[in-house]
Write a structure and sequence with these properties.
The chain is mainly α. The chain has a single domain (about 90-325), classed as Orthogonal Bundle (MetI-like fold). The chain is built from 14 helices and 2 strands, in the order H-E-E-H-H-H-H-H-H-H-H-H-H-H-H-H. The chain has helices spanning about 40-70, 90-95, 95-130, 135-150, 150-160, 165-175, 190-200, 200-215, 215-225, 230-240, 245-260, 260-265, 280-290, 295-325; strands at about 75, 85. The protein has a two-stranded antiparallel sheet with strand order 1-2. Strand 1 and strand 2 form a beta hairpin. Helix 3 runs parallel beside helix 7 (about 190-200) and helix 3 packs antiparallel against helix 11 (about 245-260). The longest helix has about 30 residues, at about 40-70. Belongs to the binding-protein-dependent transport system permease family.
């Protein structure tokens, strides 16, 4: 048997760790293999890199939002000090017939323009999902209007196309349709505005195309063997499989439709349309705030729009339980 000799006063090493220091829950050091916590210098570096975004959020987003909430309860004309009026702006808003007209025009635009735009995007995406010659070119060509559709120049060109005796008017006359230019007609100008937003279907088209690529081909093959036609395959395979993507597009495009301003303002030649035909909500908000200098009233309109969009978003999220199908374990 081997004996270990130690000098007087020396202590034997403890089992399970090196001499003089213990690791683990009972020791003075961190457990073996534990990740190192970032020190103060690392935290400071992270906050320094985030400081531009934090400053921008506080001074350009959060600060103006809080101030506009205060202004919504005041009478403010951009020149004199705000004067507290309580709920007077909201009372005047509900009693204003032009405000009700803006709500009606915006609601019509959202309910008509958004579904037509998404239907066009899905139809083109299904065509582009098939392998064809020049597929990349067609994808880029259909996506290009989304890059320039919201620009001022595109809206000016659109106004020129739908004016009296312009390209659209002359084309209608070839087919015997005498309705004149759409821009000057209170009943037709809103359709020109809807046509402009439908023309910008490139962004949702790309999202639909990505969703269609994820649908297994085996499902279509099995359904075709069982005798299912195109429409049956579309409603029972395509739509359920891309329903999360469809929900995402519906949500984004609905919110975007509520915020339409530039195209409506420019197409109507900065008049919000003949007889307020294109008086969308944001156009009337701009008119009240920067033309009539009723910034308190405009702030109240802005916050009411925020609440309305929030409620519509909440309804969409509530309804997704009935028609959106996620994979097992998804939410």
């Amino acid at each position: 048997m081997t004996h270990i000799q130690t000098s007087p006063g020396a202590r034997a090493p403890e089992a399970g760790g090196p001499v003089g220091k213990r690791n683990g829950p009972g020791g003075s050091g961190p457990p073996a293999g534990a990740p190192k916590r970032p020190g103060g210098r690392e935290n400071l570096t992270g906050y320094l890199f985030m400081s531009p975004w934090i400053a921008g959020f506080l001074f350009l987003v959060a600060g103006p939002m809080v101030f506009s909430l205060y202004l919504s309860f005041t009478e403010y004309n951009l020149f004199d000090a705000p004067r507290w009026v309580g709920l007077q702006n909201f009372t005047d808003m509900f009693a204003d017939p032009r405000w009700r007209q803006s709500v009606e025009v915006t609601s019509w635009y959202v309910l008509i323009g958004t579904p037509v735009k998404l239907a066009a995007a899905l139809a083109v995406a299904m065509l582009l999902a098939q392998k064809r010659w020049g597929q990349s070119f067609y994808r880029a060509a259909f996506y290009a209007p989304s890059l320039i559709g919201a620009s001022v120049s595109a809206a000016i060109v659109w106004r020129a196309l739908f004016s009296d005796d312009a390209l659209v008017d002359r084309t209608q006359k070839v087919f015997g349709i005498e309705v004149g230019g759409w821009i000057g007609d209170p009943e037709m100008i809103i359709y020109a505005l809807v046509a402009l937003t439908v023309w910008q279907f490139g962004a949702p088209m790309v999202i639909f195309l990505a969703g269609l690529k994820q649908v297994p081909r085996e499902l279509y093959e099995a359904a075709e063997v069982d005798g299912a036609g195109r429409w049956r395959r579309f409603f029972h395979i395509t739509l359920p499989m891309i329903s999360p993507v469809l929900f995402f597009n519906v949500l984004l495009e609905t919110i975007h439709s509520f915020q339409v301003f530039g195209s409506a303002y420019i197409v109507s030649n900065a008049t919000c349309g003949p007889a307020d035909a294109t008086l969308v909500y944001t156009c009337y908000l701009y008119e009240q705030g920067f033309v009539n200098s009723r910034m308190g009233f405009a702030s109240a309109m802005g916050w009411l729009l925020l609440v309305a969009v929030g409620l519509v978003t909440a309804v969409l999220f509530w309804s997704q339980k009935r028609w959106v199908h996620y994979e097992e374990g998804g939410r």
